[in-house]
Specification:
Layout: H1 2-17, H2 20-35, H3 40-72, H4 75-79, H5 86-113, H6 119-141, H7 147-161, H8 164-168, H9 183-192, H10 200-234
Organism: Nocardiopsis sediminis
Protein name: Fluoroquinolone transporter permease
Transmembrane segments: 20-38, 45-69, 89-109, 121-144, 150-169, 202-221
């Protein structure tokens, strides 16, 4: 446990060094600049979409940026020959960046809405959504040498993760979309601001599906890390 705590402290220092904390503050300022001028009656409509967009920026791009910084400085490959386990490495990233995403989400909506929304639903949506975004981004970025190589292929995964917006907007409502791990977080954001209503079964699906995908994505992340970082370093 002490090793994990030390790894998390190191991860926080690296995020500060790479400028992620400052980028998060800038992101919050941009979203507030978008939300505050919107008439009060429409802010509840915009808030779920803003929170979803914030997940894409912070979770999806920050962990990839962290990974490529580590590759560029060769620190990632140095970890291969240390006692640090992959589990501690990835958990440190997931915990710190999920926490940053949650803090940023509330920093965006509290000045605009106060506490006039369902706080637990926003919290659940932010945590489950961040975990999925982080792991998809990490797994897709590991095989690439630089961020410029990864940007174009990443658009496929971003497009797939954005498909629930079609359901949310009412253009295509189908139960199969609940299998997409970002569907649940988006619907919880909408329910938190009174834009949609969720039954007990729907809410359970919104929470459980992303959590199941988190477990699957952790396995995938470990395998691609072993293949492209651990095995790749040996060659």
């Amino acid at each position: 446990m002490s090793g994990l705590a030390a790894t998390m402290r190191l991860e926080l220092r690296l995020q500060q060094r790479y400028g992620f904390l400052y980028a998060a503050v800038f992101s919050a300022a941009v979203w507030l600049a978008i939300l505050l001028p919107i008439p009060a009656g429409y802010r509840d409509v915009a808030a779920p979409l803003v929170l979803f967009g914030d997940l894409l920026i912070v979770a999806f791009f920050f962990i990839a940026g962290s990974l490529f910084f580590e590759k560029g400085e060769r620190t990632l490959f140095a970890l291969v020959v240390t006692p640090l386990r992959f589990g501690a490495y990835i958990v440190a990233k997931l915990v710190t960046l999920t926490a940053l995403t949650v803090v940023l989400s509330f920093a965006i909506i509290l000045p605009v809405h106060g506490v006039g929304f369902d706080v637990p639903l926003v919290l659940l949506g932010a945590v489950t959504g961040a975990l999925v975004m982080l792991l998809v981004s990490f797994s897709s970025a590991v095989p690439y040498v630089s961020i410029t190589d990864w940007v174009l292929p990443s658009t496929f995964w971003l497009g797939l993760l954005n498909v629930p917006l079609i359901h949310y907007s009412g253009l295509w409502e189908h139960p199969v979309l609940y299998l997409i791990p970002t569907q649940g977080p988006l619907l919880m954001f909408g329910a938190a601001f009174g834009q949609i209503e969720l039954t007990g079964a729907q809410l359970a699906a919104c929470v459980l599906v992303p959590l199941v995908w988190t477990g699957v994505l952790l396995v995938i992340a470990r395998r691609v890390f072993q293949r492209y970082i651990v095995a790749g370093e040996g060659t």
